[in-house]
Amino acid sequence: QAQLVESGGGLAQAGGSLRLSCAVPTRTFRGYFIGWFRRPPGKEREFVGLINWGGGGAMYGDSVKGRFTISRDNTGTVYLQMNSLTPEDTAVYYCAASRSATRNAGGYEYWGQGTQVTVSS
Questions:
Q1: Which of 31, 47, 90, 104 sits at a 20 to 30 Å CA gap from 62?
Q2: Cα–Cα distance between 8 and 31 in angstroms, integer?
Q3: DSSP the chain
Q4: 103-118, pLDDT tens digit by residue?
């Protein structure tokens, strides 16, 4: 079964940067939108951003706008570049695939296993 696989999580200091990757099997997910979500400890899952199949149309959640950037390369891998990190960015980050450009997690059919990001002050 084709899967989305996140990587690149880890520990960062406040003000630092991390880049997450989401390996997207192109044959299975051709045409899908890829979204990023996060679940901070003890909180609800939150929309981070999404990108379309062609690598454009990026949308971001208000809490990350201007600090995070989503891109994808010609292998289909989707990246989440996270800059100016704060402790509030600490969360498990997930990538997911949807047939539509939606901020609603319920609209995503396929999910990765998640990767932990911890930002220290």
A1: 31
A2: 24
A3: ----EEE--EEEETT--EEEEEE--HHHHTT-EEEEEEE-TTS--EEEEEE-TTS---EE-TTTTTTEEEEE-TT--EEEEE-S--GGG-EEEEEEEESS--S-GGG--EE---EEEEEE-
A4: 999 999 999 999 999 9
Instruction: Catalogue the E-assigned strands of 24-114.
Output: 33-39, 46-51, 59-60, 68-72, 78-82, 91-98, 110-111
Structure tokens at 55: 């690598």
pLDDT score recorded for residue 31? 93
